Backbone:
């Protein structure tokens, strides 16, 4: 049996590895359009190990974060990839947020998180001495990891297991071939019995190549970061997050200690003018038209005018970005921040303008398409791979 995986991010790499265990003897190919694996979301993220606090109980995100964080920490330990389960604080700054944070605590408990701890202002300042706010939830199972290192370890392991990794192989066409499919790129053509597409920012387009209707569409939301200058790094020990806005799937700008040193602040969430638009002015006319001609985007903007305006202005103004951060660390100043990197989230949106919250898999007799794998899919990638492998037939 021949299986072709499209996309060499964490989800594709983890799936290829998993299939060697669940489908012994299968010939596994992985096609990646870039010159190497892990060049997009999987290595342009916050580097956090999310343990399942935020997600609706019973959803894929809840289940796969809870099991995935353990699998990811164990994988890092086994393969010598830097990681640390350092815990995080989610900080409420007013009474309304305290009420929402209590809701999160309940949700986390329902999801099976261990050791959640409600902290008074004094208690939270013992853990993070510079934090503002009036109460916090400590989430001890959360941590940080080197996802570049995880990609490299998965690539190495895959090669040892026999996965044929084809880089610079952008899939342009998928056509029927008897009971199977032919997956074509300018450099190589694979005749596969089964395909698994894990194409991140292009997942809707790759699924469409295989005949799926693009009802939901991927909208690229760039997340921009600042870094704390060395003199200000003492202000943050580990991970400090705000209470998220329930109407928005992103977590709000936060502070993250990086596994190899330094502190990042961010990311915000602004529509990118290119699916791989890591800078403000990168425009891809096809991607831009794709977004602008999708009615879901206009519905989304109509429903969230104020938030969209706030995100855009904050992206253009370091002062406003700093003001958001001051809610968490009041003493932080613009002069403490320098420009950092950016990542682009692949976020599926439906025509009504709702952001699809959960992971989404489309299952067909000879294909499985991962069409929405937002955060925490880096943390959960090994668990997602387990879920995918269960759905791949062992024979055709
Ligand atoms: C700013 C930001 C912060 C985040 N923070 C976190 C976090 O702290 N913790 C966490 O768990 N998650 C986080 N996430 C989410 C996480 O990074 C992603 O959910 C995860 O990496 C998705 O992995 P993937 O393999 O699906 O996608 P990707 O890593 O994007 O991989 C998709 C791959 O498919 C390839 N591809 C696309 N089209 C084709 C084609 N036609 N042919 C061949 N190859 C193709 C791409 O080149 C790419 O390599 C964050 C994401 C962002 C953007």
Residues:
């Amino acid at each position: 049996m021949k299986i072709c995986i499209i996309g060499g991010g964490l989800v594709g790499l983890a799936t290829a590895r998993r299939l060697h265990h669940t489908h012994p003897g299968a010939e596994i190919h992985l096609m990646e359009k870039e010159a190497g694996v892990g060049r997009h979301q999987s290595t342009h993220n916050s580097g956090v190990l999310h343990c399942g606090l935020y997600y609706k109980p019973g959803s894929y995100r809840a289940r796969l974060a809870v099991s995935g964080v353990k699998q990811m920490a164990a994988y890092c330990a086994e393969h010598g990839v830097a990681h640390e389960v350092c815990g995080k604080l989610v900080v409420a700054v007013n009474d309304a947020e305290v009420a929402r944070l209590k809701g999160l605590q309940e949700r986390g408990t329902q999801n099976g998180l261990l050791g959640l701890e409600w902290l008074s202002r004094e208690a939270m300042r013992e853990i993070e001495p510079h934090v503002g706010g009036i109460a916090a939830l400590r989430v001890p199972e959360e941590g940080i990891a080197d996802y570049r290192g995880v990609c490299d370890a998965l690539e190495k392991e895959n090669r040892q297991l026999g996965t044929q990794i084809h880089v610079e192989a952008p899939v342009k066409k998928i056509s029927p071939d008897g009971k199977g499919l032919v997956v074509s790129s300018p450099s190589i053509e694979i005749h596969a019995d089964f395909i698994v597409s894990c194409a991140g920012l292009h997942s809707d387009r790759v699924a469409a190549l295989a005949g799926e209707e693009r009802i939901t569409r991927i909208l690229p939301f760039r997340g921009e970061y600042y870094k704390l200058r060395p003199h200000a790094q003492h202000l943050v020990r580990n991970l400090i997050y705000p209470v998220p806005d329930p109407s928005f799937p992103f977590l709000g700008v936060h502070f993250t200690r990086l596994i190899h040193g330094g502190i990042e602040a961010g990311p915000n969430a602004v529509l990118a003018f290119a699916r791989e638009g890591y800078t403000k002015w990168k425009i891809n006319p096809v991607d831009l038209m794709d977004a602008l001609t999708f009615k879901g985007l206009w519905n989304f903007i109509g429903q969230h005018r104020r938030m969209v305006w706030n995100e855009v202005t904050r992206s253009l103004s370091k002062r406003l970005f700093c003001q958001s951060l001051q809610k968490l660390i009041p003493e932080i100043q613009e002069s403490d921040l320098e420009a950092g990197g950016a990542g682009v989230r692949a976020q599926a949106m439906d025509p009504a303008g709702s952001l699809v919250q959960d992971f989404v898999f489309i299952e067909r007799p000879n294909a499985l398409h991962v069409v929405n794998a937002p955060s925490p899919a880096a943390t959960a990638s090994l668990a997602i791979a387990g879920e995918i492998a269960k759905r791949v037939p062992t024979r055709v």
